[in-house]
Structures are given as C-alpha cells and as structure tokens.
Write the structure tokens for this entry.
Amino acid sequence: MAAEDEKGGAEHRLDRTLAISDGVFAFAITLLVLDLTVPTITGATSADLLNALSADYITFFTYALSFLIASIWWNAHHRNFERIRRSNSTLRWLNLLFLLWIALLPFFTKVLSNYENLPLGVILYAVDQAAAGIFLTLIWVYASHNYLRIDKSMKEEAIRYATIRNMVAPIFFLASMGIAFVNPIVATVFWVGMFPVMFIIRHFERKKLKLQTQK
C-alpha cells in the first residue's frame, strides 16, 4: 500500500515539471539580452552614441520581439498548468519537447537579427516558434482530453477556448513561412497580429463564460 501511495504521489506532483520549465524560460530570456552590445566609440559625442545605437535597431527589435513572444509562451504555459492537476511520463516528455524549442529561442533570435532580410532567416525563427506552440497545444490537448489530468470542474467551453488560444501563435508562425518567401519583413510584422487576436479571443471567452454563469 505504501508503494502504491508513493507511486500515486509521484504521479500527482508537478513541482519538478514547473521548476525546470521556469528555469529554462529564465535561462532563455537571460541569454536574449547578451546580444545587446554597447558600441565603442573613441571621442564620441551624444549624437555619435545615438547614431551608433540607432544603427543597431534590428538587434533591439528582435530582442523586444523575442522577449514578448517568450512572455506569451510563459503565460500560456502557466495558464495551462493552473488547470493541470496530475502529471505522468507522457505529460513530462511533451513538456520537455516544448522546452527544447524555448531553449533554442536565443539562437534563432540571433539568426533573425543577422538575416532578417532573408526568407530562410525568418523561416527558421518561425519554425522554432511554431514547434514550441505545437507542443504547448499538445500538452493541453493531452491533459484536457476527457478531463484526463485537468481540474474536473472546468467547463467544456473554457477547455475549447483554452485550446484555441494555444493554437493561435503556431498558426501565425506557420502562415508567416509562406509570407517570408514574398517579403521577409512583412512576415516578421505579421507575427505582431497574434497579440490582438489573442486579446479578442480572451475577451469573447470571458464574456461567454460570464453569461453562462449568470444563467
């Protein structure tokens, strides 16, 4: 009986899964800032410094973009695991595969920063982000199927909205790959569109669930 309790306890614990997840996010976000370098100018004036910093605007843009995207992944991951109550080997492996692509974010950010005008540079970044989004979606779909590992009090409508929210980012990144062949810059700007889409979905979700609660 003690062995069974120990096994059951191990299945239910999520602390180690969440700890390694937060660690990978912290590591990836920290590495992002290392690409930002202070220009060295002998006898520089304020105008010289401003010009030097402005010339490197792509690096600052890709840093800000990747930081925002990493924030989306962290928030989505946090939201998912707020409802997940039990862990098992499959869930842990799906989470590790998700973290694989998060850990690669600094590398592909640098690729994008150096080759933002090339379709391949944009596509490689989009592949990394799409893969992260796909595995995050799989985590939720697996955990929520038939309430396998989530809070059983969660409404079916809320589960569907959560699934849709998880799918938005990977859909945008997959779609941007085709756009990158035509115009890599437009493909990069296209990613920004997922932010208002997520906001709109969240707005309708809250509104609908509130109406259901009032009935």
Remarks:
- The two ends are 45 Å apart (CA to CA).
- The chain has one domain: 2-214.
- Confidence is low (pLDDT under 50) at residues 1-11.
- The chain has ten helices and no strands.
